[in-house]
Amino acid sequence: MKTDIILCGVGGQGILSIATIIGEAAMNEDLYIKQAEVHGMSQRGGDVQSNLRISSEPINSDLIAKGSADVIISMEPMEALRYLPYLAKDGWIITSSTPFVNITNYPDMEVINANLAKIDNVIVLDIEKMAKENNVPRSANMILLGAAQKALGIEYSKLEDAIHRVFGRKGDAIVEANIKALALGRAEQK
Questions:
Q1: Which pTM does this prediction carry?
Q2: Is 94 within 8 Å of 72 (Cβ atoms)?
Q3: Where would you tag: which of 34, 64, 120, 183 has the fewest CB atoms within 10 A of its CB?
Q4: Triad 134, 170, 173: Cα angle to 5°
């Protein structure tokens, strides 16, 4: 088993929480894991990207080569396209449809959507709307993770267990909101 994952988005969207949950789930399956993070102005508004490599064999590098990412999970649609050169031919993009317009020359959404439509394996979700409609407004990132579960090759129950371990200290309400969000995303898998 080998899965190379690029996680991307904008600071404050929960990218690193997704990485933590995936990493926790992988370690509890006795898999090897390497992670490299690149932070822009990650407090709020800058781009954030993380390479996450999971394997049943030892991993030498924490960086993902162009054309070899199995999955790109993006909290922001333009950021998904930014890392498209890293996606393997049969790789998956799972992305939010909601733009985070933080630059004056942000591309037109029609152009972004047209580029995403050219990709064979893509899931585009309005996670912000889904989160609000289901009363889990702070767990939109877990909706995206749930939608990516199958592409990641990690058992759903392992992700649930990881959410319990990672968010457990924050209380049952936070854990349950994140579990609910994960399930919402899982229902959107292709």
A1: 0.93
A2: yes
A3: 120
A4: 35
